Amino acid sequence: MIQLSTAVLFTLLPALCLGAPAATTTTSSTSPFATSLWPAPQVITGNLTVGFGAAHVHDPSVILGPDGHYYSFSTHDGLAIGRSSTKGSLSGYWEHVGSVLPGQRSIISNSGSTDPWAPDVTLVNGVYYCYYAVSQFGSQNSAIGLATSTTLLPGSWTDHGLVLGPSGPGAPFPLNITNAIDPALFIDPKTGVKYLSYGSFWGDIWQYEISGDGLHNTSFGNYGLLAPQWMSFDPVGTQAEEGSYQSYSAETGYYYQWYSHGICCGYDPKALPAPGME
Q1: Which residue is catalytic, options 59, 77, 115, 182?
Q2: pLDDT by residue (tens digit) across 22-74?
């Protein structure tokens, strides 16, 4: 959940920087900017006294579970898990059902391992992959880990630990100029290749190709297949970009990169920036 004065942006990715569709005249049904392609938000309710994972979620990832209910995964409480009360619907009452990580902490050795952030959950060949970040607010000492499950339920997850990182001044490029948080898995529907994007402040949004099992990045060590890709560029200040996510539309033929741009925290609520100046 991005709080206060942020803007959600996207860039059109020309076939993952390899090529783009030929120029054509677009209509409301084919334009990548057509709002008819975007679903409207739905109203949910929940108990706000149980902490995170019900109606109170931060950095949520939502996916349809094998039991027909939608599940949400969010920052705090060891990656809190919420579940919708009505099968097949996002609307209505949501309940907190538990956490992803055993003991509510990551096995990665990091000062933020007791409060993992920003889960991203994807179903891959019958297995749910939950990428997450460990860090502390305002720190570049960050890393990305992975947990997997076949059911999504609390107690079923295996924490595999480090996949990417840690970032910091002594790390190899571009981890030395970036911050390894806010992971997002994208599987190219044309090639089946897996990519992991990440980034927040320090140095924009970046993307790595990762191994078929999802456990290794392929840009370092013995996995050297593709150099890390620079996915966005903000030349101003602290590069306040985060929470990236990639998607592909067969209807438009475009790849999309979505991300948040702006500062989420620390504003005086009585003196907020003017709209468009966040």
Answers
A1: 59
A2: 334 444 456 766 667 677 777 888 888 777 878 888 899 999 999 999 999 99
3-state secondary structure of 103: helix
* Coil vs helix vs strand at 222: helix
Give domain status of residue 192, yes or no. Answer: yes
* Residue 59 annotated among the catalytic residues of the structure: yes
Q: Is residue 1 part of a domain?
A: no
Name the pTM for this structure. Answer: 0.81
Answer yes or no: is 69 within a domain. no
Specify whether 242 is catalytic: yes
β-bridge partners, 133:
117, 144
* Domain CATH for 203: 2.115.10.20
Helix (H) or strand (E) holding 257: strand 254-261
> By three-state DSSP, how is residue 223 classified?
helix
Catalytic pick among 115, 204, 209, 242: 242
